[in-house]
Specification:
CATH architecture: Up-down Bundle
Pfam family, one: PAP2
CATH topology: Vanadium-containing Chloroperoxidase, domain 1
Oligomer: single chain
Number of domains: 1
Order of helices and strands: HHEEEHHHHHHHHEHEH
Strand content: 5-15%
Largest sheet: 5 strands, mixed
Radius of gyration: 23 Å
InterPro entries: PAP2/HPO (IPR000326), PAP2/HPO_sf (IPR036938)
Protein name: PAP2 superfamily protein
Strand order of the largest sheet: 1-2-3-4-5
Structural class: alpha+beta
C-alpha cells in the first residue's frame, strides 16, 4: 500500500502559485508585469507552481523506493535561523516579502473623511488631502475625455499593454533586466502596490462616477474598471514609481546621460496617466489627484528606505483644467505657474526608516549600472 496515497490531490495546492497571474518577480520576470487588478503584483510571485499528476505520483513512488537506504533514528537537531531578521528576507518568496512590505507601510497609514474631503496620513502627519469634485464639474470634465478620444488609434497598443502595472515601460528607460536588476524591479513593484492600495482608499471615500457613466458619447475603448474614477490609480502608481526611481538614480550616479533619463521618466509618468483619459476611463482631474497622491507616497517610501526625506504633503481641490505634467512638476518644485490647478504643496512629511525597506533599498543600490556590475555606464 502506498504510504503517501492520496497526496496526489495536493498537487492542486500549487495552484496558489498562480494567484496573481504573475508567475514570479521573475514576473518581475515578465518584468513586473501584469496583475490585472493592479493589486496583485506580488501575489504568487516566487511560489512553486502546481505539480502535474504524473510528477506527484512519480515523487511518491520514488520516495518509497529509495527511503530504505537512509539511517534510522531521530532527525538531526538544526541550527536555528535568526529571529525577526532581515537576514531571512533573501530566503523568502517574492510574494512573502511583498506581504511584509505592505504590512510595514500600511500600518502607518491613517484616513479621515470630513465633509467632501478625504485625508490620508502617514505616521500621524498629513500626507494628502483630496477634495471631492461637484457633479457639475464631472459634466464639464467629460468634454476633455471626448476630445482625447482622437488619440485612441495612435495609443491603442500602449493603453492595452498598460492595463496592469506598466513596469516594462520604466525598464525601457532605465535599462533594467531581471538578470541584473531583480531588486530594482521589486522596488518598483512595491511602490506600485502601495500606491494602488492608497488610491483605492481614496476612491472608496470619494465615490466618483466614471466618465462613461456621465456621458454616453465617451464610449471607452477598454473595459471600465469596477471602482471609482477619482483619483486615478494609474496616475498614482506612475508618479509614485517615477519619484522613487528618480531617487534611486540619484543614489546610483551611474548614468552618464542621467539628465535625459530623468526627463524621460517624468514624461513617461505623464503619458501613462494621460493614456487613461485617452482610453475614456478617467477625467484629467483624476490625473491631478493621482499624480499628487503618487508623488507623496513615493516620497514617503524613499524616507522609509532611508534614502531621502523630501516628501511633502499635498492638498488637491479639483478644477476644470486639463492635466499638464510640466506644470505639475513645477508645482512640486515650488515654482509658480500661471494657472490655478488646485494643487497646494504643504509641509514636509518625515518617514521612520524601516529595516525591511532599507534592506530592499540596499539591494537595489547594488544593481547600479556600473562597470563593476557588468553593465554599461
Amino acid at each position: 500500500m502506498a504510504r503517501y496515497g492520496g497526496i496526489g490531490g495536493i498537487g492542486g495546492i500549487g495552484g496558489i502559485g498562480g494567484i496573481g497571474g504573475i508567475g514570479g518577480i521573475g514576473g518581475i520576470g515578465g518584468i513586473g508585469g501584469i496583475g490585472g487588478s493592479g493589486l496583485g503584483g506580488f501575489l504568487g510571485a516566487g511560489a512553486v507552481g502546481a505539480y502535474d499528476q504524473a510528477l506527484t505520483v512519480g515523487l511518491q513512488t520514488t520516495a518509497e523506493g529509495i527511503e530504505h537506504v537512509t539511517s534510522e533514528g531521530p532527525a538531526p537537531v538544526p541550527t536555528q535561523l535568526p529571529e525577526n531578521s532581515t537576514a531571512n528576507l533573501a530566503r523568502s518568496a517574492d510574494w512573502v516579502r511583498g506581504s511584509l512590505y505592505l504590512t510595514d507601510f500600511v500600518k502607518d497609514i491613517g484616513s479621515a473623511v470630513v465633509g467632501d474631503q478625504v485625508s490620508l496620513s502617514f505616521e500621524g502627519q498629513n500626507l494628502v488631502s483630496i477634495n471631492r469634485p461637484s457633479a457639475s464639474l464631472l459634466s464639464e470634465q467629460a468634454k476633455f475625455v471626448r476630445d482625447y478620444a482622437d488619440l485612441r488609434a495612435d495609443r491603442a497598443a500602449e493603453i492595452t499593454s498598460q492595463l496592469g502595472f506598466p513596469t516594462e515601460y520604466f525598464a525601457m528607460i532605465l535599462a533594467l533586466h531581471p538578470a541584473h536588476n531583480r531588486y530594482t524591479l521589486e522596488l518598483i513593484t512595491v511602490t506600485q502596490l502601495m500606491c494602488a492600495h492608497l488610491a483605492m482608499m481614496a476612491k472608496y471615500a470619494l465615490a466618483i462616477r466614471r466618465p462613461d457613466q456621465v456621458d454616453t458619447r465617451i464610449l471607452p475603448m477598454i473595459a471600465t474598471p469596477g471602482h471609482g474614477s477619482f483619483p486615478s490609480a494609474h496616475a498614482t502608481e506612475a508618479y509614485g514609481v517615477a519619484t522613487v526611481m528618480l531617487g534611486l538614480m540619484d543614489a546610483w550616479q551611474s548614468f552618464a546621460d542621467s539628465t535625459d533619463r530623468r526627463a524621460l521618466v517624468k514624461q513617461l509618468a505623464n503619458r501613462i496617466a494621460v493614456n487613461r483619459t485617452v482610453a475614456g476611463v478617467h477625467y484629467p482631474m483624476d490625473t491631478w489627484a493621482g499624480a499628487s497622491l503618487g508623488q507623496a507616497i513615493g516620497g514617503a517610501i524613499l524616507g522609509r528606505c532611508s534614502a531621502t526625506q523630501d516628501a511633502k504633503s499635498i492638498t488637491y481641490t479639483p478644477q476644470n483644467t486639463d492635466f499638464f505634467g510640466h506644470d505639475f512638476e513645477a508645482l512640486i518644485a515650488g515654482e509658480t505657474v500661471p494657472t490655478d490647478y488646485g494643487v497646494q504643496i504643504g509641509s514636509g512629511v518625515q518617514s521612520t526608516p524601516s529595516d525591511l525597506f532599507g534592506w530592499l533599498w540596499h539591494k537595489a543600490l547594488q544593481e547600479a549600472h556600473t562597470a563593476q556590475n557588468g553593465a554599461i555606464a
